Amino acid sequence: MGYIMDLRNFVGSSPLIMVGSCVLIFNQAGQLLLQRRTDSNDWGTIGGSLELGESLEEAAARELFEEAGLIAESFKFITVLSGKDMYYKYPHGDEIYNVMAIYEAQNVQGNPKVNDNESHELRYFSLEEPIENLNPFTKHYLKRSGYIVKW
Length: 151
Known about the structure:
- This protein is α+β, with helices and mostly antiparallel strands.
- About 20% of the residues lie in helices and about 40% in strands.
- Strands 1, 4, 5, 6 and 7 form a five-stranded mixed β-sheet that branches. A three-stranded antiparallel β-sheet has the order 3-2-8.
């Protein structure tokens, strides 16, 4: 988050428009890989903001590797989400309006492992049962992306 951190030096915690990518990773059983985030301590998707000169797909690949140690052969574009529903205030006070490209990772290689300081743990979850302490954006991403969740 170098670019965003640099901007924060100028604007403090004021709202920023943050463009990024979110990666949905499913195992053979159709379970979704989530990370228990260090900033909010809830379960959320892999993803993050663009760096200067980076494409949305490049950001998806970078975040997948940085946060879970995984490499995808390709990424299937699902949708872009933006607007007032994408507002978020971090526990430490920074405010953002996300513009988020949602991708599904295809032919993922490697075993998920916490690979940075943004996650406490990684775990696969079934979409057929409610997920306790689910990040509100993850629920929003799944609903708006057309995934069938049974909760």
